[in-house]
Amino acid sequence: MIEMMYREALRRAIDEEMQRDPLVFLMGETIAERGGSYKVTEGLWRKYGPQRVIDTPIAEASFTGMAVGAALVGCRPVIEILFIDFAMLAMDQIVNQAAKYDFISGGQGTVPMVVRTQGGAGNGLAAQHSQSLEALFYHIPGLKVVMPSTPQDAYGLLKAAIRDEHPVVFIEHKLLYMTKGPVSEEETVIPLGRADIKRSGTDVTLVTYSHMTLKCLEAAALLESEGISVEVVDLRTLSPLDKDTVLSSARKTGRVIIVHEAVKRGGIGGDIAAMLMEEAYDDLDGPVLRIAGRNTPIPYNLNIEKACVPSVADIVEGVLRMV
Amino acid sequence: MIEMMYREALRRAIDEEMQRDPLVFLMGETIAERGGSYKVTEGLWRKYGPQRVIDTPIAEASFTGMAVGAALVGCRPVIEILFIDFAMLAMDQIVNQAAKYDFISGGQGTVPMVVRTQGGAGNGLAAQHSQSLEALFYHIPGLKVVMPSTPQDAYGLLKAAIRDEHPVVFIEHKLLYMTKGPVSEEETVIPLGRADIKRSGTDVTLVTYSHMTLKCLEAAALLESEGISVEVVDLRTLSPLDKDTVLSSARKTGRVIIVHEAVKRGGIGGDIAAMLMEEAYDDLDGPVLRIAGRNTPIPYNLNIEKACVPSVADIVEGVLRMV
Amino acid sequence: MPTPPAKGGSPRPPEPILLGMYRSIYATRQFELKCIELYRQGLIRGYLHPYIGQEAVAAGACAALNPADYIVSTHRGHGHCISKGADLKLMMAEIMGKATGYCRGHGGSMHISDKRVNNLGANGIVGAGIPIATGAGMGIKVRGTDQVVVVFFSDGASNNGVFAESLNLAGIYGLPVVYLLENNHYAVSTPIECATGCCDLAGRGPAYGIPGICVDGNDALAVYREAAAAVARARRGQGPTLIEAKTYRHGGHHVNDPGLYMDPAVLAEWKARDPLLRTRRAIDDDARSAEIEAQVDAELEAAVAFATNSPEPSVDAFLAGIEDR
Amino acid sequence: MPTPPAKGGSPRPPEPILLGMYRSIYATRQFELKCIELYRQGLIRGYLHPYIGQEAVAAGACAALNPADYIVSTHRGHGHCISKGADLKLMMAEIMGKATGYCRGHGGSMHISDKRVNNLGANGIVGAGIPIATGAGMGIKVRGTDQVVVVFFSDGASNNGVFAESLNLAGIYGLPVVYLLENNHYAVSTPIECATGCCDLAGRGPAYGIPGICVDGNDALAVYREAAAAVARARRGQGPTLIEAKTYRHGGHHVNDPGLYMDPAVLAEWKARDPLLRTRRAIDDDARSAEIEAQVDAELEAAVAFATNSPEPSVDAFLAGIEDR
Ligand SMILES: Cc1ncc(C[n+]2csc(CCOP(=O)(O)OP(=O)(O)O)c2C)c(N)n1
Ligand SMILES: Cc1ncc(C[n+]2csc(CCOP(=O)(O)OP(=O)(O)O)c2C)c(N)n1
Ligand SMILES: [Mg+2]
Ligand SMILES: [Mg+2]
């Protein structure tokens, strides 16, 4: 294993895939010579040239549409929408075009494209640069949604996303780019649709993903010292959802809390809770709970920003209330 | 009461509000002289003139943004986005602008605008003209979401939406426009955020909204003949959600099915199911179930289209499975 | 400044091109007349947007393309589809919602695509095909082939933001895309004069750094000439072109729209310049045109029979395949 | 065709206008220098996009407005905000995230609005203010007042679809909106030459049916003159105008961007045309300018003190208010 930052792991994935397949190319704002605002694409422009690492004007709707078109003629575009908030400008192309082409055309063409984007609060960037909007994509048949929490997952899942025949919304988190972790030396592709048990436990299951995985692991460590054994299931891929892993963890512990940063109302937590109720009601010792973002846009001030998303303390408290 | 079509009830609401308040005005595609594709605005152009009933080019993003701006300077724009599918072009203005201005500005300005739009399957209009996308708006703090099922509700809720200080996404259903029902003779405003028990019952609660309300009522009538008493709670407003009515019906019957046309994965049914589990677990006799749209874009062919959304038979069968 | 439509007649293209264009125009016309008939009989549902009156645009533009070139189409797409070489049987089956159709009955009139001839498909979202075509152009560049893309869209779409964004993008990257703006003067019932203060739509090319040309869209020969020039430039790596082809619908926006808002006098003028009659006149050989017509008539009859006798999609098979989406 | 920038000096506007513009420019400059200092000290967080070098655009345009007129701003909005008459105390408090700020600490630099002087606010989404301003113009028309809207945005935004859509909409309806395109030649690190094949951005006005004018954006007097003319037309009901003001940032895209991609020689040229120095020179009365400077310095000092001593928003109060959203 090599110690690597999340953003380096992403870069390695892109680099290896570009090396392997000349049909992979990148588009986005200031991703070329400048290497991207979060430095994910640094060095790739120099290595692969301006034909494959392409800066775009500020035209999210159309460069996303371009990815659809390029995918339809056989390429594998990977585009960067710098903040998931800006993906709102490209929703027609993502929801009505990319997600539907395979279906509408009766299987005449798939759309192998990746929309890399980034969400979450935590840097005082306020309401239009801090949202967690994965639920909007999760609801759309035809889209896959991936949200890795570690460098290794970022690496292996991005490679799988690029190789996937269908459109993938790949959502990074601004607080993860600089986090470090071990990444396998040998080339590794992590299949989409498989959750990862980041910590085994027997008393309570925390179902989570992306940056909240780190907070859940912190909470689990704290709870261990109080004698509570917490299992942390990192979904990694939201869609397709790894129901089996979630269900078997739920059956084992009988107590489940879903933890996500996105606003609770209409967040994916409700969907998973309902699924658990539908499929494992008799194995549950009580209601599935949700610990999730507050029902508000994210404010600029850091104190109140912090209050909008679940903290380690919130998770610890939630678990304690449950056991 | 006067017998009226749903679309006539909508028109009456707009007409009365335009009469009452000169700051109410309309924008949309072919809504003026032509009266709108579903004839909701028929006659209003003649009555209020081209200054207040305004045809736009095909520019959903910008005319939605115009509504935000007009609302900020004191008007009450009511815009029509002909299909909710096309609202994907206007998501930035709805999600990042309209929903957030009041918050971002620290309360310096509200955005009293209504986005009238229309969703649902049923006419062979295929994947880009048949979606049920309310969950995308439901998840966004700062937006209200209204989905009436009857002419009376359409009338009273649209009036409330126009008078509301905050942005309202008002979602009609293509199969409802021509349905008829009694509408009160005297002016009536139905407050947002209150569900309506469309049928009382004691054995099972169906929580539903929009066109599915009609199917639930049909199912309830069939079930009555089998001796099963079904309560049909029509949410009418999804956000704010009338938790109290849902909870007390759930406590009464102990058995709840949420029925919606939208795709189950990530639909609002999960949110309501989770809420019920969190707040009324001990009063439930078993898991809350969801009967919802299939996990697919809507196809053109009528037979397979029909198979994608819940039928009366599906609902009946769901209830029978539960009791 | 856009080039004004050429005065007088257009120079004759090679004979096979001319005959091919007539075949496209005649087939589109007959196909749509049949669709309207079937619609009235309740055998076709949903939206159906006839292209009648505009056929010379698709015929002329597609005549300038190789089979490997791509097109991107619109909700009013039958003409593009047929001109690019569609199989009438599969088209008719799709529009009748049959399992044997191009899209297995998932798409209908508004969504036909045809992979075999590189027709990337129609679209129910006005304007959405424009960036998709632009991206196809980028894909071609990345893959290093000498293919070209023609994207069709109409005046209404040209007021949508993706039009401007896409011209601009194609301009910067020098993409092999021909933007074919079919100015039929209406978006549903909204005349283009009410939808923009600038009706010189070709002039928007230069505003985004690409050439803009205007042509008589009812003259298949003229459309062919301009399209061929633009396609040749694109193929040589000289980048995109915007072509505005002025034309007119012979009826309402869709099959259920009587189009009462259209000025009958103006409509009559355009009908007098019917692209079908003009192209047949250009052939000026009744035997040749009659031969084409007979072939198409037979093909169409077979298509209707095929579609009529084809099965509906199976509900069970459909549902079996969806849970993983 | 856009009007080229006027040659030679601009005619002098009335003295109070000139002094007011200088006040705006000087205050913006000092305010931002102070912000950068506070940012380096860790007292300001998030994104901060300095307007240094572009101040003449906001100062000139806002000088042409009445208090009741509206402006719509961008992520680079301090200059617009100050020029429209903001209270530096409330601005600084907002940027420091305090409860006393314009937006109660919810917004920060990228989101300041100021209802009292009809500044509809900055925006974190590039281009999003353009349709909002267009709608404000529509609202004015519906309400029948004689107000005008000026919307600021930069070259990057002019390649976004909402720019084209909005010009077009304003043109059809004849809205009282002035589109002030501050061409500072960059969108982050992307030079405008790489973002479009047509760098005559004013020329996009006519493509959508509205006049397009080009002006030296570092010349406050010239900006004032063109803005005043456009505002007067708008107020008379003669519709919208696009004004392209050519200018340049004196530094990187935001406070943490050293801007190494900017050509030092070009930057030096633009700095030599510093709008602050030029406007001070235009006043040509050291006493008057010194007086303004002293006033602003005192105001700014008070603003920093006010902001520093203001409380953070209360978490409990914040959370108490949110569950109904
Ligand atoms: C984004 C979007 N908005 C609105 C519609 C509804 N609609 C369908 S066709 C049409 C008119 C299109 O006009 P134009 O682009 O000129 O094409 P034409 O019908 O003339 O071929 C409209 C408004 C749509 N399909 N998509
Ligand atoms: C829709 C959108 N895309 C991307 C960004 C990220 N971003 C912030 S500022 C900026 C550059 C804007 O360039 P320009 O419009 O020229 O404004 P300037 O910074 O020069 O004032 C970008 C790309 C954004 N905020 N919004
Ligand atoms: Mg048209
Ligand atoms: Mg700029």
Structural overview:
- The complex is a heterotetramer, with 2 copies of chain A (323 residues) and 2 copies of chain C (325 residues).
- Chain A contains 12 helices and 14 strands.
- Chain A is of the alpha/beta class and 323 residues long.
- Chain A has 2 domains: 2-183, Thiamin diphosphate (ThDP)-binding fold, Pyr/PP domains (Rossmann fold, 3-Layer(aba) Sandwich), CATH 3.40.50; 196-322, Rossmann fold.
- Chain A has a 7-stranded mixed sheet, sandwiched between helices. Chain A has a 5-stranded mixed sheet with strand order 9-11-10-13-14, with helices on both faces. A two-stranded antiparallel ribbon of chain A has the order 1-8.
- A 5-stranded parallel sheet of chain C has the order 1-2-3-7-6, sandwiched between helices. In chain C, strands 4-5 form a two-stranded antiparallel ribbon.
- In chain C, helix 1 (15-40) packs antiparallel against helix 2 (55-63), helix 1 runs antiparallel to helix 11 (275-283) and helix 5 (129-143) packs parallel to helix 6 (161-173).
- Chain C has a single domain (15-324), classed as Rossmann fold.
- Chain C contains 13 helices and 7 strands.
- In chain C, 46% of the residues lie in helices and 10% in strands.
- The C-D interface holds C 159-165, 168, 171-172, 194-198, 203-204, 206-210 and D 159-165, 168, 171-172, 194-198, 203-204, 206-210.
Q: Give the integer mean of the pLDDT values of chain C.
A: 95
Radius of gyration of chain C: 19 Å
Number of helical regions of chain A: 12
Number of strands of chain A: 14
Summarize the SSE layout with pairings:
The complex is a heterotetramer, with two copies of chain A (323 residues) and two copies of chain C (325 residues).
Chain A: E1 2-5, H1 6-20, E2 24-28, H2 44-48, E3 53-55, H3 60-72, E4 76-81, H4 91-98, H5 101-104, E5 114-119, H6 134-138, E6 144-146, H7 151-163, E7 168-173, E8 180-183, E9 196-199, E10 204-208, H8 211-224, E11 230-234, E12 237-239, H9 243-253, E13 256-263, H10 268-280, E14 289-293, H11 302-308, H12 312-322
Parallel strand pairs in A: 2-3, 2-4, 4-5, 5-7, 6-7, 10-11, 10-13, 13-14
Antiparallel strand pairs in A: 1-8, 6-12, 9-11
Helix pairs in contact in A: 1-7, 3-4, 8-12, 9-10
Chain C: H1 15-40, H2 55-63, E1 70-72, H3 78-83, H4 88-95, H5 129-143, E2 149-154, H6 161-173, E3 177-183, E4 186-187, E5 190-191, H7 192-195, H8 204-207, E6 212-216, H9 220-235, E7 241-246, H10 264-272, H11 275-283, H12 286-309, H13 315-320
Parallel strand pairs in C: 1-2, 2-3, 3-7, 6-7
Antiparallel strand pairs in C: 4-5
Helix pairs in contact in C: 1-2, 1-11, 1-12, 2-9, 4-12, 5-6
Bound molecules: thiamine diphosphate (TPP) (2 copies) and magnesium ion (2 copies).
